[in-house]
């Protein structure tokens, strides 16, 4: 994937996870997890960056998102009483960090994520993807449509045999890596729910 240019203005909730340079992350679903919804997030050198662990027997599909020091950053869960698929990222005290809503798209995928940045600015990111959910771009329209991240889903033998998803996520300098990973996982969940 190509390196993304820096954002004109940082788009982050977690300043400590703001990309300082173009970075590519790998999001890999774990095949042999007890919940079936665990993800390992690494950089291109296979260094662990984040960990996502699905909760067993969760109606809302709750997933715990932690950094590699074991700090619980937030939970990802589906809110069930909405017309459009809606996912929220909640801190441990129940405060919502980000909301991701799937929007109707005639061809392809479309979703909107909203959150308040660390600078107090209201941020609205738009995800547009192709029909087969193989590629998607995340843009910030308030910054002239600047590309915040790109998602690309590879097709591998593991996916064909075991159904294991793997995504490459290119993150622009100035973007929050944790939120971009969470947005990609929400896209994965939306696509799985639509099958």
Task: Characterise this structure.
The protein has 195 residues and is mainly beta. The chain has a single domain (23-193), classed as Beta Barrel (Porin). The chain has two helices and twelve strands. A twelve-stranded antiparallel β-barrel has the order 1-2-3-4-5-6-7-8-9-10-11-12. The chain is globular. It starts with 22 loop residues before the first strand and ends with a helix. The mean pLDDT is 87.
What attributes characterize this protein structure?
single chain; mainly beta; Porin; twelve-stranded antiparallel barrel; 2 helices; 12 strands; 41% strand; LOR; DUF567-domain-containing protein
List the SSEs and their pairings.
Layout: E1 23-29, E2 39-43, E3 48-54, E4 63-67, E5 72-79, E6 86-90, E7 96-102, E8 109-116, E9 122-129, E10 135-140, E11 146-153, H1 157-162, E12 166-171, H2 177-193
Antiparallel strand pairs: 1-2, 1-12, 2-3, 3-4, 4-5, 5-6, 6-7, 7-8, 8-9, 9-10, 10-11, 11-12
